[in-house]
Amino acid sequence: MLPDAEALMLALIERIRPQAGPDTGLVGIHTGGVWVAQRLHAALGLKLPLGTIDIAFYRDDYKKKGLAASVRPSDIRFSVDNTPIILVDDVLYTGRTIRAAMNEIFDYGRPSSIRLAALVDRGGRQLPICPDYVGATLQVPATQTLELQRDAAGRLSLHLLERRA
Amino acid sequence: MIAASPQLTADGKLRHLLTIEGLPASILLQVLDTAASFVSVAEREIKKVPLLRGKAIFNLFFEPSTRTRTTFEIAAKRLSADVVNLNVQTSSQTKGESLLDTVANLSAMHADMFVVRHSQSGAAHLIARHVSPHIHVINAGDGRHAHPTQALLDMFTIRHYKTGFNHLRVAIVGDILHSRVARSEIHALTTLGVPEVRVIAPRTLLPSQVRSMGVQVYNRLEEGLRDVDVVMMLRLQSERMNGALLPSAEEFFKYYGLTPEKLALAKPDAIVMHPGPMNRGIEIDSSVADGRQSVILPQVTFGIAVRMAVMSIVAGN
């Protein structure tokens, strides 16, 4: 039984709220991380515009998989230098996406800190990366994919899919 | 069974970029969309991404070029590749080495990609047919045949200023006959769904079968420019000006040079493009080249992002 993504969203907001200051920069990772970050950004009333990044140019599996068919422009419109950043993803898994995202953020400047928020931590880390804020922690076997979806009304929901061979 | 395209993989992905002709709109749009993301990379403090780290790219130019070679070089460097520039007209080819021998030697130096400019049509195809499977070839202009990255950067520029293709009237002006740029532009415009592509040139500078490419032919600039959204000028190559095809440069400018008066016949928000290098006062008046409708310098800037997109797409397939 999967948890309700909307309830996790509320829990995540309350966990971050005490530590999100007026100068905090929020950066969501395409696509699901941007949905979560948009909700966080509105709920926390942050002043800096929401940043979004697509890590396609920083992936470590380019040699194996090539470039993704669709790459969205990364868009960070605040100065990253000396800014405390909260990096937001939907489902935290191997940690490789987070490594790529941190590399990309550093090409914008030198943040004073980066903390990591994820709606769900599904386990299975392959890198020394640990979230600072999570909505829930689940154990999902490697044969399955945990996916966040958003319907036309903007409601978030979690889905478990069998991994394609 | 249809013969496989030499530039596509078995599953239809872009392996080499040799010509626009025959490519589906989906691949052209993938290049344009990816290039848009690379434009945003150029706005950052560090204008580099690690995609092609450890790859060796050889710029193999058998014909002189400044803009194309430089933008390919910048593009490769922004992708973190190692770049080697070879101007072969001053090198071993003058000692009699064949094209394929040159390529074989560079392959032995662990090349991963060749960017090729050559005066012979088909040179890039020939190389693509003979390189080992991990090597990618990009045509940077071959004879009168094709200049696909120029066409793609032109399409990127048009989409940037005109937000789409299916409502446009586009005119290509000048020496269509000898122009690989015009040929690639026509294929790209028609593939992307531009409903009206015009070519404007004197009869002596038009290929005989040009209508079969899906364009409308005009011999008078004043008629062809009427109500167009985009004016794409071509360079008049100096070696054409004194032969039988044209009486003189002055004569050409009088009838086909783009002046403010003639540009006024196009739509008021029409953009003016030129692939460079420009002959001011021959195909284009300085006041137009430097005027508010000119997007000639943005074309150059977009060219870097478009070439980054092409290189990173082919190298991954």
- Show unreliable segments of chain B: none
How would you classify the helix and strand content of chain A by structural class? alpha/beta
User: Which chain pair shows the most residues in contact?
Assistant: A-B, 22 and 21 residues
Number of helices of chain B: 12
Q: How many beta strands in the DSSP annotation of chain B?
A: 9
Mean pLDDT of chain B: 93
Overall geometry of chain B:
globular
Describe this structure in words.
The complex is a heterodimer of chains A (165) and B (317). Chain A has helices at residues 5-16, 32-44, 62-65, 96-106; strands at residues 25-29, 51-53, 84-92, 113-121, 133-137, 144-150, 156-162. With 165 residues, chain A is an alpha/beta fold. In chain A, the strands form 2 sheets. In chain A, strands 2-1-3-4-5 form a 5-stranded parallel β-sheet. The longest helix of chain A is centred in the first third of the chain and has 13 residues, at 32-44. Chain A is globular and about 40 Å long. Chain A starts with a helix and ends with a strand. Chain B has 317 residues and is an alpha/beta fold. In chain B, helix 5 packs across helix 6 and helix 5 packs across helix 12 (296-316). Chain B is globular and about 55 Å long. The model of chain B has no long low-confidence stretch (mean pLDDT 93).
